[in-house]
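Margin note: ligand = S-adenosylmethionine.
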Amino acid sequence: MKNSLPLLLDLERPRGNLISGQVHKKELDKLLLKELRSGVVGEEQWYRNDVLWHRLKSAPGNPYGNSGCDSEYDLVKRSSDKFSKLIRNYTQVFLGVGTGESELEVVKAGLSTESYLEVIAVDVNREFISDFAKMIRRKVILDDCVVMFKGLNSLFQSLNEKSFQFCNKKNARNIFICFGNTVGNYVPQHLIFSIFEKISNRGDRLFLGFQLNNNIEKIYKKYSDCALFFPFMTNFISKPDSSKVRWNLNKELTQIEAYYEKRIRRSRGFPKRTQLFRSRKYDSAKISKELEPFGFKKIWEKIDDQEIACIQIYERKS
Ligand SMILES: C[S@@+](CC[C@H](N)C(=O)[O-])C[C@H]1O[C@@H](n2cnc3c(N)ncnc32)[C@H](O)[C@@H]1O
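Resulting structure:
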């Protein structure tokens, strides 16, 4: 009898745990303290509570776009037949799975050309990884296919190329997939690019999804008008005051920013103003240039008709 569900097996050992590693609250707290002193909160802090991100992503009018309105998700879904050959025989390594809809389309695209797939999902929040594994199990229904899976509950900054070596792994190369404008959350920008460089080898690929900087005023309005950003970006503040949040459009960096205009911790050494949130939007040619010094060369790109979202595949050449 044929399987109607794909087998989801541990990439590390037979009958193993699908998720390894653990980001402890203490580790995040320690990092937060350092960040608060410097006046800039790191993106990993926003995702402490997965429910807040789920709510934000499903809110009508949220800036990430819902399906059916030229979102990154639509772009990935619509062009999967174009990129499926570029991801064949690569282990799919998802850097930040979140709600996982676009990621699932990549898994489906992989299974459209091969019946054996290796998937690694990295996220600071364990819930996102566990939901993603369930989504693959339930939604990617194909006969006779096997998905070898490993979830890594880790910070991106703690990874190195050895993090992706598992004894059941057959593919020699990885494709690192980083969607949802995650690259735009980093300050300074080169931090995430140097992580890509650190975790990859020559011949590996990088699959990015991000928002373009066209119509940035309109995108800015979507961010500043969306009330659900407040609980999301202040989740670590006890009794946050919404009147102290100020949005800013940084035109020079084409970056949307939000600040908290009050000391977050009372003691000395904490600034009066803290950058709570940022999201950089991109020029597609410029980001490719910025990635070149890190060894990545663009091999494929797709932009939606309204030039809102962009997906690009790079290959590490050096
Ligand atoms: C902007 S969301 C994008 C989620 C998903 N890729 C999408 O397209 O909707 C960023 C994701 O990366 C994870 N993340 C953010 N910073 C991280 C870090 N430093 N280490 C590990 N995971 C991180 C978050 O938990 C979240 O799932």
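The chain has a mean pLDDT of 93.
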